[in-house]
């Protein structure tokens, strides 16, 4: 490894960072992570902290999952790559598809289409949704509905259904026919409705209204995250996603659950759809499917949707979509090992227990620090603090404030993530009680330092 002076001096010289201003990178060196073990990361200066971010919501099993490393290594030795485009397959991806089928059967999802990550999974679901309607003689169903504050990756389709202007405005014009509905965000919404259940009803009525306005026969799919992640861990009322599902069924609109963050246990349930008792038509997964050990994703497909494709032998039903790395055997081997570990360790139990511990601890911090306007979580290990300048008016905190808390928390022993006015926690699902407390202590020190 190059020494720390080389790394710090050259970070921005030939490297652009995602979701970062290149100009800002030139003057502000990032934290350069060089090692990790368990749930801890170590930076180039030798400072070791608990990773409260879990990579990027993805390292659910921590950094020392030996069975995954072994599986990757063995697969690299046996078959490092073979494509699964028409006419070929590989053994590992077949085994994985069967495992995923068993894992997601309770969600009604029985086929897998493999991708290289979350954005690919979203793009796949959006495209297959349009094709499904064409196959059923409803070629006019081309539009998509989604939620403001939703995040669906960065490809052109995903960016078009994204509900955050930061990821859209610099890249417009995006895909036509994408319409955005109010987020189920009780802390801030145009109805000034703080009760989550009443807010859910208002937004469901808005969805009905938008469908009537657009014409149901023009809409292909509604895409949503069961809990909105990047938008600031927005937890809808339990009635919301089932309400969306019912509306979709009534109008022949497909429901795409974007579970890139929520699948595989993060919410304390095996999927966000299962958490809310919903059966989507497509489920986008990535992240924890390989825990960050290999770039990989899968779109799970409902039996009824699969039948429409499989019962039509014409060229119209051929899937004209896919990636060189769809079904990559090394990714498939990593995913198989991750699934086995995810089940063996029964991570949902720990996710629920540690999530409850962190949620209570964050609520305690809120009683100590006025800058914490809202605490969100309550379902496993996705939590957020929204920082405000004034609790009564809910005016957002000044821009540098969350970064200052993050920096001080880092010095005190935990990496947390800043997203706009929010501080986000999404640690590994194997986090211990002591390490959860360690994150809370570091945050406490971070707020004290303000
Ligand atoms: N959908 C959701 C809900 C996500 O959170 C993300 C990534 N954070 C994506 C899609 C895109 O995934 P990727 O970054 O792997 O392309």
From TrEMBL:
InterPro entries: Aminotrans_3, Aminotrans_3_PPA_site, PyrdxlP-dep_Trfase, PyrdxlP-dep_Trfase_major, PyrdxlP-dep_Trfase_small. Its cofactor is pyridoxal 5'-phosphate. GO terms for molecular function: pyridoxal phosphate binding; transaminase activity. It holds the Pfam family Aminotran_3. Keywords: Aminotransferase, Pyridoxal phosphate, Transferase. PANTHER family: AMINOTRANSFERASE, AMINOTRANSFERASE CLASS-III. Belongs to the class-III pyridoxal-phosphate-dependent aminotransferase family. This is Aminotransferase class III-fold pyridoxal phosphate-dependent enzyme.
């Amino acid at each position: 490894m190059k020494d720390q002076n080389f790394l710090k001096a050259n970070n921005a010289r030939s490297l652009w960072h995602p979701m970062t201003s290149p100009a800002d990178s030139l003057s502000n060196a990032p934290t350069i992570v060089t090692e990790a073990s368990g749930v801890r990361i170590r930076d180039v200066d030798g400072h070791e902290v608990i990773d409260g971010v879990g990579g990027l919501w993805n390292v659910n099993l921590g950094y020392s999952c030996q069975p995954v490393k072994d599986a990757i290594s063995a697969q690299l030795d046996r078959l490092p790559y073979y494509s699964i485009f028409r006419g070929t397959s590989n053994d590992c991806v077949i085994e994985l598809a069967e495992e995923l089928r068993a894992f997601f059967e309770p969600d009604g999802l029985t086929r897998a289409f493999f991708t290289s990550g979350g954005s690919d999974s979203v793009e796949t679901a959006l495209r297959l949704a349009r094709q499904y309607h064409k196959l059923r003689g409803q070629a006019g169903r081309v539009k998509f509905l989604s939620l403001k504050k939703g995040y669906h990756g960065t490809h052109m389709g995903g960016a078009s259904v994204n509900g955050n202007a930061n990821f859209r405005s610099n890249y417009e014009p995006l895909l036509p026919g994408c319409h955005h509905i109010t987020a189920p965000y009780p802390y801030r919404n145009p109805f000034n409705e703080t009760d989550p259940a009443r807010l859910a009803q208002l937004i469901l009525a808005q969805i009905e209204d938008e469908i009537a306005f657009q014409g149901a026969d023009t809409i292909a799919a509604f895409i949503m995250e069961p809990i909105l992640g990047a938008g600031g861990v927005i937890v809808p009322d339990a009635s919301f996603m089932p309400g969306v599902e019912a509306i979709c069924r009534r109008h022949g609109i497909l429901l795409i659950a974007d579970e890139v963050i929520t699948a595989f246990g993060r919410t304390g349930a095996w999927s966000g759809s299962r958490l809310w008792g919903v059966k989507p038509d497509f489920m986008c997964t990535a992240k924890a499917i390989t825990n960050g050990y290999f770039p990989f994703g899968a779109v799970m497909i409902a039996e009824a949707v699969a039948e429409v494709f499989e019962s039509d032998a014409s060229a119209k039903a051929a899937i004209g979509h896919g990636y060189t790395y769809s079904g990559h055997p090394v990714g498939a081997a990593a995913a198989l090992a991750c699934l086995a570990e995810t089940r063996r360790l029964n991570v949902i139990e720990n996710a629920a227990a540690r999530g409850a511990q962190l949620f209570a601890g964050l609520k305690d911090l809120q009683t100590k620090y006025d800058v914490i306007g809202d605490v969100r979580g309550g379902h496993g290990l996705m939590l957020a603090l929204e920082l405000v300048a004034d609790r009564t008016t809910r005016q957002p905190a000044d821009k540098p404030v969350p970064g200052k808390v993050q920096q001080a928390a880092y010095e005190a022993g935990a990496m947390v993530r800043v997203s706009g006015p929010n501080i986000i926690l999404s640690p590994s699902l194997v986090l211990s009680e002591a390490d959860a407390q360690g994150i809370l202590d570091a945050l406490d020190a971070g707020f004290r330092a303000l």
